[in-house]
Amino acid sequence: MGMSLQQIVFGVLSIISIISALGVILSKNPVTSVLCLIVTFFTIAGHYIMLNAQFLAVVHIIVYAGAIMVLFLFVIMLMNLNAEIEPQKRSWLKYAGAISGGALLLVLLAALREASVSSLQPGAVEIGLISNLGKTLFSTYVLPFEVSSILFLSAMVGAVVIGKKEGHES
Amino acid sequence: MNELQLIPLLPFIILAMASVVTILLIAFRLSHTVIQVTGFLMMCLVVFATWYVRDTLPEEVPPLFIVDGQAALFTGVIIFCVLVIGLFSYIYFEEREENPKEYYILLFLATLGAAILTISQHFISLFIGLELLSVSLYALIAYLRNRNNAVEAGMKYLVLAALSSAFLLFGMALIYMEAGSMKFSGIAEKLPQVSSSPLFLMGLGTIVVAIGFKLALVPFHLWAADVYQGSPTPVTAFIATISKIGTFAVLLRFAQTIHLQQYPLIIAIFSVIAISSMIVGNILALRQQNLKRLLAYSSIAHFGYLLVAFLPGNEAGTEAAAFYLIAYSITLLSAFGVITLLSSREHEAETLDIYTGLIWRRPVVATILAISLFSLAGIPLTAGFLAKFFVLSAGVQQAVWLPLAVLILTSVIGLYYYLRVINTLFGTSGTADVMQKTVHPFFHVSTYITLVVLAGMLFWIGVFPGLVLQGIRLFLLLH
């Protein structure tokens, strides 16, 4: 059977991302987990590029694989996690998690099997380019853009409030 | 969009400005009192702005927002609640924290999030509004870090809210994939073709999970009691009223636009959620010894009742729901106001022991608490009774018998624990209450007056509901 280059790339990316995502949750060592997570982010960025959304891919790598992952690694190394001080989880909790997660997976799989996905409209491929994205963001979607800046303001104030030094400096 | 479309958004812009003004006031190191008064005046300004733009309604601000009568009504209730909560916050935080000022920034931002939910008609604005609300709430819940439960409550809310946001986004993506639009009306147009597709139903289901979490409906209610108990009392009042009003408003608009109630499957899902919320909420409240936890479980049950008004999907249902939310907010605000007033610097007035024989020591406060509990229980002559009555009559019109039967039965169960608290109020107690010195007589007096007015409103709405109903109808016609 003939597989186009796109399909091969897609398949490889998907397999790597699934394996590394499993690695994130199955690995015992937190640092390995985080490294697997970075690989997952990169493969997802690859998917974005295949969808012709270069800007999204670049932002994804800079923000997630760059900033957030460094933060993750810092926290993990500062906390010096290892197996001894890790709190022991009760076993029934594990089973409950596995059962409910499995049930969700089953429902999702059943839904996906039934589904018929229509193909992408040809006009839609240009939307992910940075100039189109910028135009849309600052014309049609300018209000939600502003509101999301307020969202960041609230996150910032919240972080300052929680992280403020103990005691009263005023 | 053009500048004319900005006019109906004026109240929301002022609301956003209020938080920025608060930041500036803090930067200039002004006192708590100045910030409190300025915040109060800004909220009054929002009310005036809403009044000022009422002639331009309904106005659509494509693609994300629609400012119509229903939005104005729910925004009005939200602003009313934040005015009262802001007042309660003063005496609460002045006693506890050296620096209670940042609290107001977060309070106004969270209010803005809830207000955005009331005007959103698009998944994007829904999501941004909901996140603005939750992100501010994370910090608000954990605001008093040094108290033992606060950080735990904050963490619980953070983890569960993030999880529910993930569900929400996943559901939105699935619906977008099927319907090709994230605007509610766009989804409604595509609905005949996609309504039986499994992915669409899956998407709706995951969105119900997220909304159910925000409204603390069973089986997504597990956070409610701990978070209610751990957060500062004014914040608990905020979660119980404003956060839920905003979420319910957007659920209502979504359901109205896509005519959610036509689908038997959806009706079945919401009926199950409503019935289990009513039963579980009331049963878990039965043996609670902690007033804040008791109110948490009672709020689970109350949103179950509210869903019964939501089920029929008719005009009467919407009216009943709006009336219910107004009555419920006033009731809860007065109950939490009493808790705020009785809380001391060291501990919250949350265990029932504190309330033993309160009526002999502080008769006014105890009477107000009793009135609000009567209203929660739905005793005639209070607003809560009429609210339940309108819900029942809306349900009878569409013959949703099973939820109605459960509503009546569980109301009777609910009576037990509300009356138990009232019984405690009248008990005899040996502990002589040491009257604390009030540091801020002005704010204490105004809190007192507010509480009396709230309790008076409960009676007034309970006896003469005509004016409120007329107002609700007038607003709902503007669409």
What does this structure look like?
The complex is a heterodimer of chains A (170) and B (479). Chain A is mostly helical and 170 residues long. Helices cover 73% and strands 0% of the residues of chain A. Chain A contains six helices and no strands. Chain A has helices spanning 5-26, 30-50, 54-79, 91-114, 130-138, 142-163. In chain A, helix 1 (5-26) runs antiparallel to helix 2 and helix 2 (30-50) runs antiparallel to helix 3. With 479 residues, chain B is an all-alpha fold. Chain B has a domain at 261-479. Chain B has helices at 10-27, 32-52, 69-96, 102-119, 123-141, 150-179, 184-194, 198-214, 224-230, 233-258, 264-285, 291-310, 315-342, 358-361, 363-377, 383-398, 401-426, 441-463, 466-477; strands at residues 59-61, 65-67. In chain B, strands 1-2 form a two-stranded antiparallel ribbon. The relative contact order of chain B is 0.10. The A-B interface holds A 107-108, 110-112, 114-117, 140-144, 147-148, 150-151, 153-155, 157-162, 164, 166, 168, 170 and B 1, 9, 16, 19, 23, 61, 63-65, 98-99, 102-103, 105-106, 109-110, 112-113, 116, 124-125, 128-129, 131-132, 135-136, 138-140, 142-143, 145-146, 154, 177, 197-199, 201-202.
